[in-house]
Amino acid sequence: MDYINAFWVGGLICALAQILMEKTKMLPGRIMVLIVCLGAVLGAVGIYEPFMEYAGAGASVPLLGFGNVLWKGVKEAVDANGFLGLFQGGFKASAVGISAALIFGYLASWIFEPKMRK
Predict the structure, then answer these.
(1) Alpha-carbon torsion angle 72, 74, 75, 80, nearest 10
(2) Could you state, in order of their start, the residue ranges of all structural domains in the chain?
(3) Is the distance from CB of 58 to CB of 6 less than 8 angstroms?
(4) CA-closest candidate to residue 42, choices 70, 81, 6
(5) Cα(4)–Cα(6) distance, rounded to whole angstroms?
């Protein structure tokens, strides 16, 4: 049942983003920022943790989960370092995920032949 919940919740998040792209004049970058901010707000309010326990990877992998990771990192860093934690926390919390995306993207460019669009 965990896989099914992850699948439908992740699909619903992606479908809502697609609806926003097609039905509004918002650009994709702004929609992504909106979703990341929504994940941070849901984490701050305390709604995201139970949601993630129910949906698993379906809630933690999309951009909504990235916003929550940033929120948790900033919260922990502010508790530990005070005001400077506002600037440190997001970087420390998301460094592994961003580094992995860069490394795997680079490795994929070696394996496959990237083609530039004209």
Answers:
(1) 120
(2) 2-111
(3) yes
(4) 70
(5) 5
pTM, full prediction: 0.76
Contact status, residue 86 vs residue 78, Cβ threshold 8 Å:
yes
- Whether residue 90 contacts residue 72, with contact meaning beta carbons closer than 8 Å, is answered with no
Is the dihedral angle over the CA atoms 76, 81, 82, 86 positive or is it negative? Answer: negative
- Sequence-ordered alpha helix ranges (H) in 1-118: 2-23, 28-45, 48-55, 57-60, 63-81, 85-111
* Spatial contact of 61 and 67, defined as CB atoms under 8 Å apart: no
Token pair of 53, please? 């326990």
Q: What sign has the CA pseudo-torsion 117, 11, 91, 84?
A: positive
Interval 66-102: pLDDT, tens: 888 888 888 888 888 888 888 888 888 888 888 888 8
